[in-house]
Amino acid sequence: MTSPESEDKNKEQKGRAIVPKELSEVDKLKKELQEERSRSQDYLTRLKYLQADFENYRKRNEKETTEIVDLTKELMVRRLLGVIDSLELAVAAGKKSRGKKSLLSGVEMTLKMLMRTLKEEGLDTIEAVGQPYDPSKHEAVECVGSKGEAEEKVVEEVRRGFTFKGKVIRPSMVVTSARSVPKESDKEKE
What we know:
CATH architecture of the largest domain: Alpha-Beta Complex
CATH class of the largest domain: Alpha Beta
């Protein structure tokens, strides 16, 4: 049997053995915590670099988009310079000549040139007269009565409408026909 003294010594030795184990466990956890903090700091640094890169990308993309839009506008203006030249020539010819035919002819040629240039860019006119009324393409400014029409149709175009690459950018202002509705008498006779 063991004496009470030896039991105390055993407990003391066990206690000493436990203390270094606990300390090594705490040191291990501290080391792991430090590694996780270091990893977290590394991720945070990477995230900041990614955010800065993205911000630079966004600014560069906006700048490039603006440059493309400006270049497109410049190309369009360059194509329209010929139209300006033709209009200036037509005005000069109109001032010099007494005949209005030459002025009218010059302006008509210039209008055709302008319309051709815009058509090449994607502009189209909306066909209106004789077509069924379509509120997405036409804006009715007047409605006149018509007999025998089954549906509302465009009978006159007041202002031409346009589409750009299939999208309506200005509806046609039109006069439409409507079926005439028989009027009821104000008072029915009994």
